[in-house]
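Re: that chain you flagged

S.,

Sorry for the slow reply, it's been a week of failed gels. I finally had a moment to sit down with the sequence you sent. For the record, here it is as I used it:
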Amino acid sequence: MKVIVTGEPGVGKTTLVKRVVEGLGDRAIGFWTEEVRDPRTKRRMGFKVVTTDGKEALFASKRFTSKHLVGSYGVNVRKFEELVLPVLERALRSPKGKVVIIDEVGKMELFSKRFRELVRKLAENPKVNLVATIPIRDVHPLVKELRRLPDAVVIELRRSNREGMHEEVLKLLT
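Prediction finished late last night. Pasting the structure tokens below so you have them in one place:
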């Protein structure tokens, strides 16, 4: 089963993913991304990636100097890859019953060629159960491919339908 979740920024895609991970327990393998806010000003300063096995790293920040930019955020592709690629490679080899979590296939993550390759392999493998989030717009050919995966359930998350949606996703995966 493949579940692709899309929606406007801030609608709750990551919250949905974290609730799905909680519901799956040790069946989940993958990662999600979270905003990092300045504790004093509460302004968003960057983004970190968190794996289902509890590792995390800041991979995008207003303070990073990088040739990879999304708005005012510099993206450290190496840090992202060091944490995420081993998890996705394990997911490719994981036993039946595991669910691969990818939050998200967005502009920052798509700077990594190896990430794109692994996401494509996971999405195309009929034996892999997958929950992935994508932007509302097709910002890259891979996003467009995921949105049009045969046999995938695509959910557009909105404020009006987000309550309890994690339970619907968990039902789809059982």
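What I noticed first: The chain has five helices and nine strands.

Talk soon,
D.
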